[in-house]
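Thread amino acids onto this structure.
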């Protein structure tokens, strides 16, 4: 690419192109995995840069408040633990770039970054990708009404800004994350009604008993929710939302064994905010753009990056991955994987420190112990195939391009049998989010209509730019011949 740029502009680089910042280890993402990786690599003596798109480091789990809360509602144990970890990382000499979005990655280790509107390039000898995951939501009638948000967004509002999405909040979906966020909101003063799609059977209950420490944590969480008047309704799913200028009502149904609504079981829930999430989807775009091998596992996030679990190495030389992009499994697994990847990346550059072997072995043990419980949670709360039936023909699936399910099904019936094919046919997935919101439901709609496995139809490609960026920044970066 440099040659192409030289031929176009002569022997000198354009004055608008900034010289790349060079580091030994670049870490993308400042959540539990990214911070752990940065700290581990820095302790070995590597020069480390962390790049994070949010204003404050910490990720979703350790999300830090944007300002101090007078009543201390946002100063939770997770916030305090994150504050201590961030301070430790900074004191160790790790540089953290905030509000810096990676929008391109190249095989030579160069990252193109939008940093506060400025075009910046970073060239790293080793790259650790810890880009995390985001909520996934199955569209339903009314999900575009103001006041309907994801559970992750509700938690971010509460943690970072001490704001409530509403005074009366209905939360719906599946998985323990709903319980955690429900407690955050209840502590902040919201009245919560929680609708949990999963209804674990006796066999699943007995499996959970194999983890007595986690069972105790769950019991404490449920007791705290009960003390704050949180109502939990099991085996139901939200099927529609009502309201005009803002959501006023959530409608739920009991669901059958496949997760489909049962006729005649509707219940109306008055609310001024509806937070929904059906688990998480791994953000693997950077890794897939670089050519890292992935595997498909719907229970743990769809496409996830394949790594050597002893080192965190991906299939691409010099690229490591840690945390939710290797399989959504929670902060304990993410932190342990970050330590493994950070030590391995720094060690591969010749940085050695006494005790490395012990620290690495401890991280692997912690990862393995936490992974067993994470696997059980993933199996228990995995979205069921009948979930797609909450989406009607008129329901908008792609919010960016306003594409309804009926248009998607027409494309499928005309021969578009993968997400990429439907994208080209309808523009579903071509908007600003590039399929982050609609890619998952799109794949499930296709799989259901064709009776094919999700792994065969879910193939949206990672494309440049990975995130929205100005044309000016593209021009100021290296020439992008792939666009």
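Threaded sequence (483 positions):
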């Amino acid at each position: 690419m440099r040659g192409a740029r030289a031929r176009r502009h002569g022997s000198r680089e354009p004055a608008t192109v900034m010289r790349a910042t060079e580091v030994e280890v670049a870490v993308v993402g400042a959540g539990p995995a990214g911070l752990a990786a940065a700290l581990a690599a820095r302790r070995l003596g590597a020069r480390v840069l962390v790049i994070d798109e949010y204003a404050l480091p910490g990720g979703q789990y350790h999300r830090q408040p944007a300002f101090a809360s007078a009543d201390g509602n946002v100063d939770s144990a997770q916030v305090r633990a994150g504050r201590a970890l961030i301070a430790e990382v900074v004191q160790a000499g790790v540089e953290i770039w905030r509000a810096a979005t990676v929008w391109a990655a190249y095989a030579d280790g160069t990252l193109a970054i939008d940093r506060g509107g400025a075009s910046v390039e970073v060239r790293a000898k080793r790259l650790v990708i810890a880009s995390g995951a985001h909520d996934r939501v199955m569209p339903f009638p009314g999900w575009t009404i103001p006041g309907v948000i994801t559970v992750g967004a509700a938690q971010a509002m509460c943690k970072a800004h001490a704001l409530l999405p509403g005074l009366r909040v209905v939360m719906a979906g599946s998985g323990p994350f709903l319980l955690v966020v429900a407690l955050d909101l209840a502590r902040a003063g919201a009245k919560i009604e929680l609708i949990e799609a999963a209804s674990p059977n006796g066999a699943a209950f007995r499996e959970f008993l194999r983890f007595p420490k986690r069972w105790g944590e769950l019991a404490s969480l449920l007791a705290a929710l009960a003390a704050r008047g949180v109502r939990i309704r099991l085996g139901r799913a939200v099927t529609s939302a009502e309201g005009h200028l803002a959501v006023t009502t959530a409608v739920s149904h009991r669901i059958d064994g496949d997760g489909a609504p049962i006729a005649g079981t509707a219940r109306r829930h008055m609310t001024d905010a509806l937070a929904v999430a059906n688990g998480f989807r791994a953000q693997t775009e950077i890794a897939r753009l670089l050519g890292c091998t992935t595997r498909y596992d719907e229970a743990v996030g769809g496409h996830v990056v394949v790594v050597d679990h002893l080192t965190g190495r991906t299939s691409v030389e010099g690229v490591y991955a840690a945390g939710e992009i290797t399989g959504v499994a929670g902060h304990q697994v993410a932190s342990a994987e970050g330590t493994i990847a950070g030590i391995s990346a720094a060690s591969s550059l010749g940085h050695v420190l006494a005790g490395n072997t012990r620290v690495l072995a401890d991280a692997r043990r912690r990862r393995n112990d936490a992974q067993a419980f994470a696997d059980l949670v993933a199996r228990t709360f995995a979205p069921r195939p009948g979930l797609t039936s909450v989406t009607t023909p008129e329901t908008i699936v792609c919010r960016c391009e306003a594409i309804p399910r009926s248009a998607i099904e027409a494309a499928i019936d005309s021969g578009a049998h993968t997400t990429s094919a439907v994208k080209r046919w309808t523009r579903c997935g071509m908007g600003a989010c590039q399929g982050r919101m609609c890619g998952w439901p799109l794949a499930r709609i296709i799989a259901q209509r064709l009776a094919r496995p999700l792994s065969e139809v879910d193939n949206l490609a990672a494309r440049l730019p990975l995130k929205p960026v100005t044309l000016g920044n593209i021009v100021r970066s290296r020439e992008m011949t792939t666009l």
